[in-house]
Amino acid sequence: MTEEILINVTPQETRVGIVEGSLLQELVIERTSKRGLVGNLYKGRIVRVLPGMQAAFVDIGLERAAFLHASDIQQPLCNALGEPQKAKEGITALCCEGQDILVQVIKDPLGSKGARLTTYLSLPSRHLVFLPRQSGYVGVSTRIESDEERLRLREIIQSIPCEEGGVIVRTAAESTQEGDLRTDLDFLRWQWRSILEQAKSSLGKQLLHEDLALPMRCLRDFGGREI
User: Fold this and answer.
1) For residue 84, what pLDDT is reported?
2) With contact defined as beta carbons under 8 Å apart, do 44 and 101 qualify?
């Protein structure tokens, strides 16, 4: 069965359709005036902490302060000496007003509500998703059904030293050669180091990384040999 990606770009909006055979499987529309923020990384500053809601509001330079729930704050697995650390409980133990923080948008602003944030950061490529600060973690897409292939991919990733973070192997990586996976991971690690350098040199709130425009995102996420 043939698969196609149909992309229509106009000054007002971009439309992408994923077609399998003669059936439309997915339709994505992105308007120029309201481009989504999901996937963008920001350096923000916590402006308010609400213990009753177990949440904080973060200024990332948008019209409204963004929302960060305690459950979306990544806690360190160990201290500076590498010793295990107990999980902290409560939003006031996790952050404080005036604190600078690296965050990623997981939900766009809607109506009177600001964007929703997380500190569980992720950077995707064609074959991999890089998870900063989750060193040692290796996951493989459950959509790869072959146990042998899943094991092969896991062993390749585990053989690559990566202290900066963990890795999820995407479905598109099935049957991909080791060299291509290493290239993807090298690029993502370089991208993360660049983001950190920007964050260190920035004096205030700033957009550090913007996800690809819709046509390129679709080519990255859906494009394959069968397209």
Assistant:
1) 47
2) yes
